[in-house]
Amino acid sequence: VSENYVICEAVDSLSTAYALPDSPYRANITMRFSPGTFAGDATLIGKTAGENKAITVQGDNLAGGGGTILSGDITVYDTVTLAGGTNYKLKFSGTVVIKGGAIVTGNYCDFLKRLETRGNASCSWSNTLTTSPAKLYRYDNAINSFNTCTITFGNDPGAYTAVSSTITKGYTMYAASATYGGSDATGDGLQMYSGTATSTTGNKLVDSAANFGTDVVNKTLYNSTDNTWAKVTARDSATQLSISANIMVSGEAYIISNAFATVQKVVDAIPGTVNCDTTLQISGESYAEAVNVWGKNFSGSFSITLQGSRSFTDLGTASSGANPVGNGSAGYGTLTDTTKAWGVNAYQNLWVEITGGTGSGQIRPIHLNTATVLTIVGRWDTIPDGTSTYKIFSLATTIDGTALTHCVKIKNGQQGINLQYLKMLNASNILEPSGGSSWSLMYCHIQGGAWGVNASGGSSGSIYACVSRLNSLGDIIMDRAATVSQVKRCRFTGSSTRSIHVAAAAVMYDLTETYIGVEEYCPISPPS
Q1: Which of 60, 95, 314, 402 has the largest CB neighbor count within 10 A?
Q2: What is the gyration radius of the CA atoms in the chain, in angstroms?
């Protein structure tokens, strides 16, 4: 009673609705969509000749309704309002590109794939989301303003204003070999689904809250709780998947991604000259390639992190911990667990992480171990005690540069490249930064090169809690005005001639709590 209604002869797509008004026209036009999914691409251009006139694309406005999804790719050149409402959303599951001086107002929109603002487009967004894995990409002179939005940028955010909004500048891309579903032909490196397993079944992922589509088959599954990987082999239902390895139990978090099969492809896929924090999450496998990183981040304080996976080999609760007496004392910290019976030095060159209790979050290389005591490289910032839980881990991701010039090369002014949890082996130079680049190396193992790190050409970097061993000429060489700001808590074993060589106007600061040891001959040259 008293509710208004309209009976209409409706069309069934945005492109059909957009084609019907006279072109150009001089009146405001609303295109109202029922709940449901509407397929088909559309280009919105040539309809707004009149001053201050606009097209409004309006989704389902019924309280509690299922919402309107436009699943095609949409390109906007006109003055357009994209309007959802409080109890519903106008959802876009295809790519939306706003171009060429378009003026767009978006209210209660949810972008599920990709949103691009280009040219001189001017966009105002309110109550709008980019739902993972969707990103907003901004190019050229496009302007964006946000009011009560949750947005993730996928590249340089450039000019934007935000009121009561959550703006994230950064995201994660994925690399996994074909064994775990990676593909250089069809991958885009981006996340497709995420959630938490709700029950445990062998070689299955079960998530009662999920809605897996058929696109999930042969994609990459990453268990982000314990750093393990598998391939989706079949879609049993919208809430259950068959997987290639038995890696999921109830309560563990997962991400399903459209991964690339090589690390280089992921680096290349980072859009344009970016200015956003990007993490490359790499599966626990061996990659035989020489990775080149440059041309992605020429300004700003943002970073690109190449992050490998870890394999947790043991865990427990500490009985006690200790540091050498006095801040200036020689020696090493320890962690004791009287319940263990480890093989002597079984964990040398691995890492221990304090996962809970006193000192939580600290990670140190393991220098030596007895049956019950881990001796770390350097000191504890906070000494573990009987409340401290720990895990011992090795590095599961390898970049193998056998017969190649490098494992990773950073040059041409590339800024903010971080390498973490990577084992890099057997290239002429394991890490080769040059050309004014900036970099950091954390929790990495470098072995089998002529040099572990060969820094030159005004590059600057730091090395923290790394292991370098069995490189034929040494662990670090610095040349032609290279700078290393810190070498701390590392385990170096040198070569027959040297461990660290600083030459030709290069500078090293803060060489502290680092073992330069007796596994090989290892002087520092030159003595100055």
Answers
A1: 60
A2: 27
